[in-house]
Specification:
By secondary structure, the chain is an alpha/beta fold. It starts with 20 loop residues before the first helix and ends with a helix. Bound molecules: pyridoxal-5'-phosphate.
């Protein structure tokens, strides 16, 4: 950061909010991982989301998934609606309903696949085509799939968003977010300005932690996917279970599209247990190896009753438990589920 006697910046870094060598390294890493032109790292996934909306500006209209991460919808409804950004929510598994939601002032279509917490799958290529036909930017929240399992730019999307808190960091010890762009265009310039002028940036240490996590990302994803398959197949056959949402199951509504656009089906699943809210909370309460906690994408398996966390207006069924399948031995995970469900 030190200036030379002539006032120039020999290393190029002026001030940490604008740019920082560790953040630069993470941004180069994430751009390369997604196959994009540039990346920008933020203090959280939600700060990255917020920056996209701010860059679109007042007067913009955005189409969002009905079942987007509830924090994304909360931001859109409670923060950006008041700043003159209007939104429509659409069922992203139905391309025609997204087309019908488009308006002349639509500036972006926000895609989240697989979705949180219903693990629904949206067809990125078809939705990006609908966005582009309306002159809008296609944004994909790629948090759950990661660039290891899903390549949104190759499917036509323009901006990829991540909560690096999850699989990219991979150890449940960091909060962070990122945007990656396919091309450095005018919208990206505005995103960069908001990042450096607004300062909702990732700290250098958090950037370092995410880079350390990324080193093992492909191997961790292999383990998460294999364990999720074992757990999903076990749960789908259990008499105390009403429904399992995991796109790797052939009967799942998202199976066909996920098989086309993902290289594996991910480590997140949700399970609807018999007995509604009380049954779900009691089942989670009996688990010993799974930790009852928010967040996902780390080595430890986590379970959460989403309806309680999201509160009134949630789309999560009362009997639904969201499960982040970790990297423990799958037999241990299944044994824990067995003792919890057999007493249901
Ligand atoms: N997008 C998805 C799909 C998420 O699961 C989350 C967090 O759970 C976010 C965005 C928000 O990220 P953060 O908690 O880092 O702000």
């Amino acid at each position: 950061f030190e200036r030379a006697p002539d006032g120039s910046l020999p290393h190029g870094w002026l001030y940490s909010r604008n740019a920082n060598p560790t953040r630069d390294a993470l941004e180069h890493c994430l751009a390369a991982l997604e196959g994009g032109a540039e990346a920008a790292a933020f203090a959280s996934g939600s700060a990255a989301t917020m920056t996209v909306f701010q860059a679109l500006g007042g007067g913009a209209h955005v189409v969002l998934p009905l079942d987007a991460y509830y924090g994304t919808l909360k931001l859109a409804r409670e923060v950006f609606a008041t700043l003159g950004i209007s939104i429509s929510v659409a069922d992203m598994s139905d391309v025609e309903s997204v087309r019908a939601a488009m308006r002349p002032e639509t500036k972006a279509v926000w895609i989240e696949t697989p979705s949180n917490p219903l693990v629904a799958v949206a067809d990125i290529a078809r939705l990006a085509a609908v966005a582009h036909a309306g002159g809008a930017t296609a944004v994909v929240d790629n948090t759950w799939a990661t660039p290891v399992l899903q390549r949104p730019f190759e499917l036509g999307c323009d901006i990829v968003m991540h909560s690096t808190t999850k699989y990219l960091g991979g150890h449940g010890d960091v909060l962070g977010g990122a945007l990656v762009t396919r091309e450095a265009n005018a919208l990206w310039e505005r995103i960069r300005t908001i990042q450096s002028a607004g300062g909702a940036v990732a700290s250098p240490f958090d950037c370092w932690l995410v880079m350390r996590g990324v080193r093992t990302l492909p191997y961790r994803m292999r383990g998460h996917c294999a364990n999720a398959r074992a757990v999903a197949e076990y749960l789908a056959a259990h008499r105390a279970v009403e429904r399992v949402h995991w796109p790797g199951l052939p009967a799942d509504a998202g199976h066909e599209i996920a098989s086309r656009q993902m290289s594996d089906y991910g480590g997140m699943l949700s399970v609807v247990v018999r007995g509604g809210r009380d049954g779900a909370i009691a089942t989670a309460g009996r688990l010993e190896l799974f930790t009852r906690a928010t967040s996902l994408g780390g080595p430890e398996s986590l379970v959460e009753h989403r309806a309680s966390v999201e509160g009134p207006g949630t789309r999560a069924p009362e009997g639904l438990l969201r499960v982040s399948v970790g990297l423990e031995h799958p037999d241990d995970l299944i044994a824990d589920l067995e003792q919890a469900l057999s007493r249901a």
